[in-house]
Amino acid sequence: MIAFVARYGLGIVLALAVLGKARNFGAFRSSLATFGLQGRVAQAGAFTVVTVEALVALAAFSLVADDLVVGVTGTGLGLSFTAAQTYLLVMGEQAAPCLCFGSAERASARTFGRAALVLLLGLTLWGAAV
After folding, report:
1. Distance between CA atoms of 90 and 66, rounded to whole angstroms?
2. Which long-range contacts (CB under 8 A, 24 or more apart) does 46-54 make?
3. What confidence score (pLDDT) does residue 95 get?
4. Whole-model pTM?
5. Which long-range contacts (C-beta less than 8 Å, at least 24 apart) are formed by 39-48?
6. Longest C-alpha distance within the chain, in Å?
């Protein structure tokens, strides 16, 4: 039951993130300037983030994808997102737009919590699969 909740919870959170970013892709791409990514590098970075999120979300809902694979990739995404939010908060970039779900909101405990949720769901699924 824990694996089921973690797997589908991760899929739902990532699907919402993909839909939000896809709806406002240009703004998401521009928001990567906060991390020093601009121009073609920002375009590639934004495309990569959305693609990986979409693939992990699809895997989470797939009947053939292994829990371990989904858990490990979800954990990797969660680590990346949590690290990005930590960077923004530590550097005092609260005014920086997150656009994690397609709408501009400043980095905060809320955006950190969502990133940590992806990490927690990935870790939970990974742990349940081992």
Report:
1. 36
2. 46/21, 49/21, 50/18, 50/21, 50/22, 50/25, 52/77, 53/14, 53/17, 53/18, 53/21, 53/77, 54/14, 54/15, 54/18
3. 62
4. 0.90
5. 46/21
6. 44
Structure tokens at 85: 């939010």
Separation of alpha carbons 108 and 128, rounded Å: 30
Residue 67 has a CB neighbour count (10 Å cut-off) of 19
The two structure tokens encoding residue 52? 């990986």
11: its two tokens: 């899929």
Kindly report the average pLDDT of the chain as a whole number. 91
Q: Which residue has the tokens 């954990």?
A: 75
pLDDT (0 to 100) of residue 93:
66
**Cβ distance 9 to 125 under 8 Å?**
no
Buried b (16+ CB within 10 A) or exposed e, 95-115: ebbbbbbbeeeebeeebbebb
Give the list of residues 6+ apart from residue 70 with CB closer than 8 angstroms, or none: 7, 10, 56, 59, 60, 122, 125
